[in-house]
């Protein structure tokens, strides 16, 4: 991309300003890029068809599990290649319009992940409140400006200062203090590397998408054996397969290098080649496999 990569790089994130995705992206790229705020996670993936070079999307939360919309896009689309990850500690707040008390709240707006992460607080203090899903936590905060005063939003503390007329009513309302979300960094293509420009260390991980045919759909033993031969299978997730027989799934397998990490260009090349070899082995065993990312 040339020497001016920092000033011309467009990074797509879930918007608006104030989302945890934006915060995660800032922890890597700072103010050296242009952020392009997208309304939904699907819009972030779709933005790769334009002038977007990099995207950041939430993958999973330590309390509430995978982000379904992200996995559903990984299930079917071929936009972008995962080249890194970032983990962010998440502290949710209950935000209201200035002067609103807890007993006034009748509706709570937020992303479904945040609503799930705060379910104990909601059940205890707002058991009768209507829960309304929004595309992001920051969009929930911004919506308060147009909603009746009996509404609240679950979002980051920073949203209260970003949008005039809001204040924090309660802090740290998630189920546990230790609440973390893992985000994926995607580039437009596998050949595009941004790690050296932004000091992103290799993790020696890879994410594979595996389609099982009808005969093998309920026999995962062979897949596990293949994945666990020369590298460590650290996580496997599944989503329903599109355009296939009912109750047949798409599998997302995360693998990691077993031996110690060596921070060298040759080591990264060898890891990439090992992942490609694994994908070939899975394919030769009768499964449809593709590497969604190597980082």
TrEMBL record:
GO molecular function: prephenate dehydratase activity
Pfam families: PDT
Keywords of the record: Amino-acid biosynthesis, Aromatic amino acid biosynthesis, Lyase, Phenylalanine biosynthesis
Organism (species): Amanita muscaria (strain Koide BX008)
UniProt GO cellular component terms: cytoplasm
GO biological processes: L-phenylalanine biosynthetic process
Gene3D superfamilies membership: Periplasmic binding protein-like II
Name the UniProt record assigns to this protein: prephenate dehydratase
CDD domains (alphabetical): PBP2_PDT_like
Protein's UniProt keywords contain Amino-acid biosynthesis: yes
EC number(s) per entry: 4.2.1.51
SUPFAM superfamilies reported in the protein's UniProt record: Periplasmic binding protein-like II
């Amino acid at each position: 991309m040339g020497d001016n990569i920092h000033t011309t790089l467009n990074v797509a994130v879930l918007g608006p300003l104030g989302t945890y995705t934006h915060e995660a992206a800032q922890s890597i790229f700072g103010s050296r890029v242009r952020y392009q705020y997208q309304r939904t996670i699907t819009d972030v993936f779709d933005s790769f068809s334009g002038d977007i070079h990099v995207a950041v999307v939430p993958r999973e939360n330590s309390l509430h599990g995978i982000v379904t919309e992200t996995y559903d896009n990984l299930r079917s689309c071929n936009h972008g290649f995962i080249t890194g990850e970032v983990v962010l500690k998440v502290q949710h707040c209950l935000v209201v319009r200035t002067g609103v008390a807890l007993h006034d709240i009748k509706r709570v707006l937020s992303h479904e992940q945040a609503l799930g992460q705060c379910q104990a607080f909601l059940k205890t203090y707002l058991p009768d409140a209507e829960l309304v899903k929004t595309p992001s936590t920051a969009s929930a905060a911004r919506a308060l400006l147009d909603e009746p005063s009996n509404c609240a939003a679950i979002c980051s503390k920073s949203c209260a200062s970003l949008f005039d007329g809001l204040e924090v009513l309660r802090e740290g309302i998630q189920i546990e203090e230790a609440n973390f979300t893992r985000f994926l960094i995607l580039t437009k293509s596998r050949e595009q590397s941004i790690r050296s420009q932004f000091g992103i260390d290799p993790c020696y991980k890879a994410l594979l998408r595996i389609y099982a045919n009808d005969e093998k759909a309920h026999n995962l033993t062979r897949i596990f054996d293949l994945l666990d031969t020369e590298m460590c299978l650290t996580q496997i997730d599944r989503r329903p397969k599109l355009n296939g027989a009912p109750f047949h799934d798409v599998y997302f397998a995360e693998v990691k290098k077993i031996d110690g990490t060596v921070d060298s260009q040759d080591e990264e090349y060898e890891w990439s080649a090992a992942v490609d070899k694994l994908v070939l082995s899975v394919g030769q065993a009768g499964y449809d496999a593709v590497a969604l990312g190597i980082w």
